[in-house]
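Continuing the batch. This is chain 6 of the set; chains 1 through 5 are on the previous pages. Same settings as before, nothing changed between runs. Recording input and output for traceability.
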Amino acid sequence: MEFLVIPFFGFPLLVLLLIVVWYNGLVRARNFCEEAWADIDTELKRRYDLIPNLVEAVKGYAKHEQTVLVQVVEARNRAMSAHASVRDLAQDENQLIAGLRHLFAVVENYPELKASTNFLHLQQELVNTEDRIQRARRFYNGNVRDLNNRIETFPSNLVAGIFQFQKKDYFEIDSAMERIAPTVAFS
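Output for chain 6:
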């Protein structure tokens, strides 16, 4: 008779223990995503702080390129504003990146600006920041993948449903053209 009592009480305890383990795993995965997002946010702020300095450096040389400078500043301001979702921020970030590319295309027409140590320093800082943003994006997206896998796979999906864990969006590039590696040809 004692032999039957232990498995009867042991099974609910085992189920409860598994629910706790799955719940804690989901909480850990969600917290990793939030930490990774904070890293992206820090790097984006760094970029937003560099852009006005870069625009000011270009402004002195390229006075007739005001539309490009205004577009970059407006794109920066949109990207800095509050966003309802990661997808909205990614869209504004893509517009900012396009504006910066256009700005650097304009800079190519000004050899004295390209030789300016102030501009070169700002440009190098921006390049370093972009690299850090890319690393932070990859880290964030990896954590989002892990969380989403836990939310979607059995049996942790049962616990995720009970406690209303939500999938997160990836922070990704919208434009298919930006995903294609550039072709380098020596003529």
